[in-house]
Amino acid sequence: MTGKIIKGIAGFYYVYAEGRGVYACRAKGIFRNEKIKPLVGDNVEFEILHEKDREGNVLRILPRHNSLLRPAVANVDQALVIFAIVKPDPNFNLLDRFLIRMERQKLPAVICFNKQDIASEDEKEALRRAYETCGYRVLFVSALEGGGIDCVREVLAGRTTAVAGPSGVGKSSLINSLAPSAHRETGEISQKIERGRHTTRHTEIVALGRDTYIVDTPGFTSLDISEITKEELGQYYPEFGRYEPYCRFSGCAHISEPGCGVKEAVAAGRISGVRYENYKALYEELKEVKRYR
Question: What's this model's pTM, rounded to 2 decimal places?
Answer without folding.
Answer: 0.83
